[in-house]
Design a protein that fits this description.
two-stranded antiparallel ribbon
């Protein structure tokens, strides 16, 4: 049974399963297109040249998942994620052709799109079954945003009418979905930069007048007052915590769930103001 997708680190079982998946695909000749082992008679591809593949992986600083590997040497999730991304780049579904009886091997052709699709499905099934909050998407291991945010972030198109603001929001989204905890923290910096940019997006507006104008478009009455208070609090968070400023008196944000909370809170405000000012996607 699949588990809730909330785990942000790999345990030994899932780490070994993912490494074994790559090992199996090497044994099954799925890397023969990227690292061809030419038939000695020169008339076909006989599978994967492991020595070439191993040398290339060494050059990339990747651990070799064959020859009796010890899972304990895979000391970080980054080792495994890097292996999966490299594998996606090089993998292709082998299609055995004629059997060459003299050398006792098949000659292969390859379908890269099918191989990548199958590999992606296999990796993501393991992530899903083990409750891992990551997925392999277009060859990159990305983090799944909390459910309440995931669909919105995946499909939202930033068309604010301000190129610089669009760029800040796109970078913030991209970093928030990265597997690196450092990049996810950096997503807050870009999102708060976008917040400051948004305050002056109205023609002729300074930060104070601009945000009031946007709030006026977003709501009226008691809700308008509450949103203004929220806007002030969000600005204060950006100034007091280690988001836009790195001085020693700023408070560090150390936990992933806190990054999620702050990103969600700021993104919700920005989205509301963009939508209600007809600048949404």
């Amino acid at each position: 049974m699949a588990q809730p997708r909330v785990k942000e680190s790999l345990d030994q079982a899932i780490r070994e399963a993912l490494i074994t998946l790559v090992h199996s695909r090497i044994d099954e000749e799925w890397f023969g297109q990227a690292f061809p082992d030419a038939c000695p008679d020169g008339y076909g591809n006989a599978g994967t040249d492991r020595s070439k593949m191993k040398a290339m992986m060494k050059g990339y600083g990747l651990l070799w998942p064959v020859d009796g590997f010890d899972a304990d040497t895979w000391t970080s999730d980054t080792h495994v994620f890097d292996l999966l991304e490299f594998s996606y780049e090089c993998i292709a579904l082998p299609e055995p052709g004629n059997f060459h009886s003299f050398f006792a091997h098949h000659h292969y052709s390859y379908d890269q799109d099918a191989g990548r699709a199958r590999f992606t499905a296999d990796v993501n099934r393991l992530f899903e079954r083990n409750g891992i909050a990551f997925e392999l998407k277009d060859g990159e291991i990305v983090r799944l945003a909390p459910t309440v945010l995931h669909e919105e972030l995946a499909h939202y198109v930033f068309q604010t009418g301000d190129t610089a603001l669009d760029k800040l929001l796109e970078v913030a989204r991209d970093k928030f979905l990265k597997r690196s905890a450092q990049e996810r923290q950096e997503s807050l910096e870009k999102l708060w930069d976008a917040w400051e940019r948004l305050k002056t997006i109205e023609p002729g507006a300074d930060k104070n007048n601009g945000i009031r104008g946007l709030l006026d478009k977003a709501a009226a009455g008691p809700l308008r007052d509450r949103l203004e208070q929220e806007a002030k609090e969000l600005t204060e968070i950006g100034n007091k915590f280690m988001i836009r400023h790195m001085e020693t008196d700023k408070v560090a944000i150390e936990h992933s769930v806190h990054v999620d909370y702050l990103f969600h809170r700021m993104f919700a405000m920005i989205r509301l103001l963009l939508k209600e000012s007809d600048r949404g996607g």
